[in-house]
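pasting input
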Amino acid sequence: MGEPFIFWLFAAIVTVGAVGVVAMRQPVHSAICLLLSFLGVAGLFVLAHAEFLAAVQILVYAGGVMVLFLFTIMLVNVKRAAGEPYVHTQAGAGLLAGFLILAIVGGTVVASSRLRSLTGAGDLADPTRLSSTSITRNVTRVEDGRKVTSPVTETVIGNSQAVAWGLYRDYLLPFEVASVFLLVAIIGAVVLGKRTMERVD
Amino acid sequence: MIGVTHYVALSFLLFAIGVTGVLVRRNLLTVLMSIELILNAANLNLIAFSRQLGDLNGQLFAVFVITLAAGEAAIGLAIIISMYRLKGSVNLDDATELKG
């Protein structure tokens, strides 16, 4: 019981969901299986002490992306005849390539699991390192009628706070670039989704 | 004891299932869902090694991966909708413009 049991439970949920996405005939059923898989991954995030990311996973994937998928499924009418194939004409080659990747990457995982540095039983890092970070900031206080500024180092506790400090201090530029990327994605989606550009003379 | 190997193995399984879905399925919507599975596999890897090494950077990278996945889903679905307008179907077999 305990951690291994929860891990295997969520691993089973993720795998069943993923297989369902690929195997289900109707896109709606695939979407529901995808939701199952997303929630399982969020559970694994919690287990690996990434609580903030688990919340983001549920909000963005299970909330946003899933709604987007369901809307698109409703917009494009995907009813099909019962006998119609749901794999395309080159599916045999695709399946072969899939198994090949399974073999190659699986072999790599098995081979690398022998490396002591990756799997040593006692090697797991202290999880508190993921939920605390030390920050140094300048604090100004009034001393003898003068303002005195001195750096103060303190420790913040909590995964969300630690992620926030990393995001806004170490990864500030990528963060801003990501916001520009999202803006581009929004504009692109609107332009692509518009009916037709009508020329005004 | 659950170590990083378990997470990596699960992530690899998820990745292989996703790749198979991309290669095999005929419906573009399902192909896009399989791509989301692949991105989730990458995130699982990042989180596993972040846990193993006690390094927060893995989680920060996963945040950016989720951002990219959201944008990719929005653009991909918009492309699917415009293909549906053009062709009246979302099947990969019907996109044959570039066929020699």
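fyi Chain B touches chain A through 73 residues (CB under 8 Å).
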